[in-house]
Design a protein that fits this description.
The complex is a heterodimer. Helix content of chain A is 0%, strand content 48%. The radius of gyration of chain A is 13 Å and the shape is globular. By secondary structure, chain A is mainly β. In chain A, the strands form 2 sheets. In chain A, strands 2, 4, 5, 6, 9, 10 and 11 form a 7-stranded mixed β-sheet that branches. In chain A, strands 1-3-8-7 form a 4-stranded antiparallel β-sheet, with no helix packed on it. The termini of chain A are far apart. Chain A has no helices and 11 strands. By secondary structure, chain B is an all-beta fold. The radius of gyration of chain B is 13 Å and the shape is globular. Classes of the chains: A mainly beta, B mainly beta. Chains A and B meet through strand 4, strand 5, strand 9 and strand 10 of A and strand 5 of B.
Chain lengths: 112, 115
């Protein structure tokens, strides 16, 4: 199975500042079709996960452009600009290259 | 817009089985694979498996192969997750999710295994 390693496991951010979360996969997520099968999710407290970004950097419908994704191969980053109260929760990266789909352990974002 | 409505919370006895449902509205269930994800209290997300409602083909994570069974009923646009031989380790919230990149999620069903 492909292992997904996120860091840090938690981050505290002052509202209005930025935060970055790293995700590393044990295998390149680049398929021969040119698509990199990596996405990011936010799970707010007591809610279902919500898709933020797919294919490394594509913003999901309705998601704020304060969220951005970057990276390639095995190393990926989610950046949240101008952090707001509604950004609090746990962020997960997920790989879709192979079954079983595997999640990172999650990064908890809190406000200072 | 696609919506996934999951069945209500369950309190079940150890050693028994439970069947959870996930009803699709806003699209036909055959449009995409349906996946189920487990989340134990205070823990992360774990992929259980997926079903293709078009032909009922399934794939499971290895650790769930003897625990979970996925089925789908196209007439009611509903997918099901059956969990068998329940233990305290199965106490969790179970989510269904569908469409490319897990774009849509149900609200989750809490299963509590307790005597």
């Amino acid at each position: 199975d492909i292992m997904m390693t996120q860091s840090p496991l938690s981050v505290a951010v002052t509202p209005g500042e930025s935060a970055s979360i790293s995700c590393r996969s044990s295998k390149s997520l680049l398929h021969s079709n040119g698509i990199t099968y990596l996405s990011w999710y936010l799970q707010r407290p007591e809610k279902s996960p919500q898709l933020l970004i797919y294919q490394i950097s594509n913003l999901a419908s309705g998601v704020s452009d304060r969220f951005s994704g970057s990276g390639s191969g095995t190393d990926f980053t989610l950046k949240i600009s101008k952090v707001e109260t509604e950004d609090v929760g746990i962020y997960y990266c997920v790989q879709f290259l192979e079954v079983p789909n595997t999640f990172g352990a999650g990064t908890k974002l809190e406000l200072k | 817009e696609v919506q996934l409505q999951q069945s209500g919370a369950e309190l079940v006895r150890p050693g028994t089985s439970v069947k959870l449902s996930c009803k699709v509205s806003g699209d036909t269930i055959t449009a995409y694979y349906m996946h189920f994800v487990k989340q134990r209290p205070g823990q992360g997300l774990e992929w259980i498996g997926r079903i293709d409602p078009e032909d009922d083909s399934t794939k499971y994570a290895e650790k769930f192969k003897n625990k979970a069974t996925l089925t789908a009923d196209t007439s009611s646009n509903t997918a099901y997750l059956k969990l068998s031989s329940l233990t305290s380790e199965d106490t969790a919230t179970y989510f269904c999710t569908t469409e490319d990149w897990f774009a849509y999620w149900g609200q989750g069903t809490l299963v509590t295994v307790s005597s």
